Amino acid sequence: MRITQAGTLRINFRDFLPHDKRRIRCNYRCRYCNQAGVRQVDFTADNFTQASNLWDRLRAVEDRLLVKANFDGEIFADNWAQKICFYICGLPNVSRFEFITNNSLDPDVYMAHINPSKAVFNCSFHPDFVGIEQFITHMLKLKRYGSRAFATMVVTPERAGQLGSFVSRFRSEGILLKPILLLGRYQPRVPRPLKRLHKNLCRLMDIKTVFPEAYSKRTLGIIRRYYYSDLEFEYQYGKRTKGSLCYAGSDMINLYKDGTVMRCFTEKLGSIDDLLSGGLRLATGPRPCPAETCQCPTHMIFLDAFRQHYSLCDDYADHYYPRKEPVHAEEI
Ligand code: SF4
Ligand code: SF4
Asked: Is 302 in the pocket of ligand 2 (CB under 6 A)?
């Protein structure tokens, strides 16, 4: 059974629907984590059975599947997440499985469970918790195992000044570092004696704590200089998408643990039963976006505006190459 016209389907596999206030475990506590304050949960054996059954049914699909585990938490710090990711990565029609990880664990701990030529790693660098040398050591080890990997970093205002040196250090090891704008509310780090004063000030000046609007012009300029593409920067910064043509729901879907199929975060398309029975047919081309903005880098690259300038990378679920200047291709 073929689901897409081109024969390749990119699937963002998610643990919970957007309104759920739970997440898998994480060994870090980033101040900018969009799930900060929500409950971390232990999944049960039944949850594993439910998810593995879902993926067993997808074995019938003839399309090449590029899967990304898009969980809010750290896969390698959570038993359920690890187990289900290893399972999916082993399925024959899954050609690539993308792990988002904070790269805190030595790859020797988990690589025995993974086919390195299928696994790719999207490593989030959180300098509040890990030194750059240790982070790079783990990434180089992933590459030695035979996996592809690139790094990302949410650039908080106080880290922007270091971004250039971070990019250079990664580049010197042949690693691509993609900066990401901070989105949402964020409590900057302040010295302990000033914490209470700062908290009150933040409350009074609430609007100033909402990013990306609250970046200073100078900080934005620094971050933009190192962005993977100007177009990605513009959309992350809030460029309007409503009505723009987008391939989400055509060759990319969001699939949730309970079998719900969504276009991205915007439209519920149906269920995995609908998809496999033919009751749900994916669009054969781009359709207008119903949302005002699309600031998720995982999703925005499905906009037709990106296809006009870039080509999707077949090794990742959500990475792309500039068509005219393939300068990053050798770096990942
Ligand atoms: S490592 Fe990722 S999931 Fe964990 S707290 Fe930081 S941003 Fe959140
Ligand atoms: S632009 Fe973003 S929000 Fe809009 S349809 Fe595409 S993926 Fe969804």
From this structure: yes
The mean pLDDT value of the chain amounts to 89
Supply the pTM of this predicted model.
Answer: 0.90
The Cβ-side half-sphere exposure at 222, using a 13 Å CA radius, reads: 17
| Domain residue ranges of the chain, discontinuous segments joined by + | 8-331
CA 155-157-163 angle, 5° bins: 50
Give the largest CA-CA distance in the chain: 63
The residue type of 167 is V
| Residue 155 half-sphere exposure toward CB, CA atoms < 13 A | 31
Q: What is the dihedral of CA 262, 263, 265, 269, to 10 degrees?
A: -40
Residue 73 Cβ contacting ligand 1 at under 6 Å: yes
Mutate to test the pocket of ligand 1, among 25, 30, 40, 135 (most ligand atoms within 8 A of CB): 30
278 Rama class: left (phi>0) / alpha (psi -120 to 50) / beta: left
What six digits make up the tokens of 318?
């959500």
168 and 143 in contact (C-beta within 8 Å)? Answer: no
pLDDT tens, residue by residue, 179-229: 999 988 776 666 666 666 666 666 655 445 678 888 999 999 999 999 999
Closest C-alpha residue for ligand 1 atom 7: 33
* 8-14/22-23 β-pairing: unpaired
CATH of domain 8-331: 3.20.20
C-alpha of residue 109 to centroid of ligand 2, in Å: 37
Contacts of 270 (CB under 8 A, 6+ apart): 261, 279, 280
